[in-house]
Amino acid sequence: MALTNKKFTGPGPDQLYKDHLKNNNFSLPKCLDCSEFHFFPRVLCPHCGGFNLIWEKLSGLGEVYSTTTIRRKAERGGDYNVSLITLAEGPRLMSRVEGVEVQAVKIGDTVQVLINNDSDEPFVLFTPVSEV
Amino acid sequence: MAHELRGSSAIVGVGLAGCGEAIGRSPLDILSEATHNALEDAGLKLSDIDGLFTGSSYHFMPTLSTAEYLGIKPKYSDGSMVGGSSFVAHTLNAAMAIKNGLCEVALICYGSNQRTAGGKLATMSEQQTYEIPYKPRYPISSYALAAARHMHQYGTTREQMADVAVAARQWAQLNPEAFARDDLSRSDVLNSRMISDPISLLDCCLVTDGGGAVIMVSSERAKDFPNKPVYLLGTGAAHWHRQITQMPDLTVTAAADSGKRAFEMAGLTKNDVDVVELYDAFTINTILFLEDLGFCAKGEGGAFVANGNIAPGGSLPVNTNGGGLSCVHPGMYGIFILIEAIRQLRGGCGDRQINGAEVALVHGNGGVLSSQVTTLLGTEGVL
Asked: How far is Cα B176 from Cα B197, in angstroms, rounded to an integer?
């Protein structure tokens, strides 16, 4: 039995997540054993414990699972939104919903991902999608 | 067949110090003063302690720093860190160490000068990588997200959450040692400054100084001490997440698991519980834990805590010292829920005493609803 597994080479999940975002792809690891995505990205699948993962681009769609307005003085930037978004593919992440009044973000709102690539530390935001 | 740990150890000493404001004192100063008070309560000397259990937001290696300050060399030491629930978890570890002869006199202790040292929550926690860009307030925003979801799913209202604060204040008014004792109405809470919706200032626990210490020995030795022993009947601990995004369901905490296993070990049910002391860092906590521990159905916690049901004169006494909301809260609160439960079972709580209390449920929380630890304590009559 090898004490170290040669399979684990190359950049780790945090770096790969950022690299995908820099290429304008909102992607996450998907488990080849149980087919589930997970967030935050790891080297293993936290659902089934499998280590056979593949990165796959997501639809970018999600639903607001919970939301809060953080109160902040106007001179420091004013109130802002922090939300938990459940992605259409299942995983949940923390983000901010933009493009709508801070107090108007509601649980159940359908949202779409927006990648912020302005810095070396890309991250995702979400904007509301009006349902057809 | 009873679990072998049930009733195998007992608390024989408790001490408090620096609760409120302890100007000019360090966390370990306060911890040591609480330890002194517990030793005096138990009729023991510092040199009798051979087991040490503690947690801290100020010290990287809390057992080492605490033992160094006290000048003791414990045979058994545990500094497991699960936030404010650590001290409740330590009761089980202490019971196991004592049962296995690894120590004979266990000290569980805590101290903090959070209020007089500047009032900000002291934490050694790393920031969560995938939360940083969004600047949530730690820990309040995580609890706010849980409260918002509970309100959405079950119709829980801010009024019901406010009633948790009102009940806590009513208990504090019966406790001369409590920090906040002014009258508090539901509308006072509803009108207090919003911090992270739906949690307002008066939905949040206090920021005070304070320290506590608890001394445990085997039940064989417990009767040799000046005070009525309080026995450890059962403990369960559970954790399913660290950060709020990873909480499987924001309306269900791991108290559903910790409580179940504590009751199993103790051979008791919620109907046996005379008094509940739980970690009310925020008003939503009381609602969630009473549901998950089985005192009411999931989703009915709002109605259960409303209109004085958990206040003096209500159907279930909860947080009889006034809780973290009104009595004391120096960063981590777990040692204080233990101490209040012990004092209730000993019978020395004056105006807030629950007459004839024989079984107390202590429930600690750590992180952002992350760690849940339940301990059941009882008098000799329950053994």
From this structure: 32
Which residue from A40, A68, A92 is facing B144, i.e. has the nearest CB?
Answer: A68
The ipTM value here is 0.96
| Interchain contact, A71 vs B130, CB within 8 Å | no
Beta strands in chain A (DSSP E): 27-31, 53-57, 61-70, 80-87, 92-95, 110-116, 123-128
**Which of B134, B197, B250 shows the shortest C-beta gap to A69?**
B197
Distances in Å between the Cα of B295 and the Cα atoms of B212, B270, B299 are 28, 7, 12
Nearest CA in chain B to A84: B245
Q: Judge residue B10's burial from the number of C-beta atoms within 10 Å of its C-beta, 0-12 exposed, 13-18 middle, 19 or more buried.
A: buried
Architecture per CATH, domain A61-128, reads as Beta Barrel (2.40)
What span, in angstroms and rounded, lies between the C-alpha atoms of A42 and A23? 20
**Per-residue exposure over A24-45, b if at least 16 CB sit within 10 Å of its own CB, e if not:** eebbbbbbeeeebbbbbbeeeb
Tell me how far apart the alpha carbons of residues B303 and B163 are, in angstroms, rounded to a whole number. 10
Cα-Cα-Cα-Cα torsion B331, B332, B337, B340, nearest 10 degrees, comes to -50
Domains and CATH numbers, chain B: 9-119+209-232 (3.40.47.10), 132-204+234-377 (3.40.47.10)
Q: A84–B141: do the CB atoms touch at under 8 Å?
A: no
In a mutational test of the B interface, the residue from A28, A36, A71, A94 whose CB has the highest number of chain B CBs within 10 Å is A94
Listed as ranges, residues in chain B with pLDDT below 50 are none
Q: Do A66 and B145 touch (CB under 8 A)?
A: yes
- Choose among B67, B4, B11: nearest CA to B341: B11
**What secondary structure letter does DSSP report for B48?**
G
Model pLDDT for residues A77-124, shown as the tens digit of each residue: 999 999 999 999 999 999 999 999 999 999 999 999 999 999 889 999
Contact A94 B197 (CB under 8 A): no
For residues B312 and B308, give the distance between their C-alpha atoms in angstroms, rounded to a whole number.
7
pTM equals 0.97
- Collapsed DSSP state (helix, strand, coil) of residue A16: helix
State whether residue A104 sits within 8 Å of chain B by CB. no
Q: Where are the domains of chain A?
A: 13-57, 61-128
Condensed to tens digits (0 to 9), the pLDDT of residues B92-120 reads 999 999 999 999 999 999 999 999 998 77
Of the candidates B169, B29, B50, B36, the one whose C-alpha atom is nearest the C-alpha of residue B113 is B29
Cα B333 to chain centroid, rounded: 5
B50 three-state secondary structure: coil
- The closest CB to that of B130, out of A65, A80, A94, belongs to A94
Tell me which H or E stretch contains B213. strand B209-218
Name the closest residue on chain B to residue A81, using Cα atoms.
B134
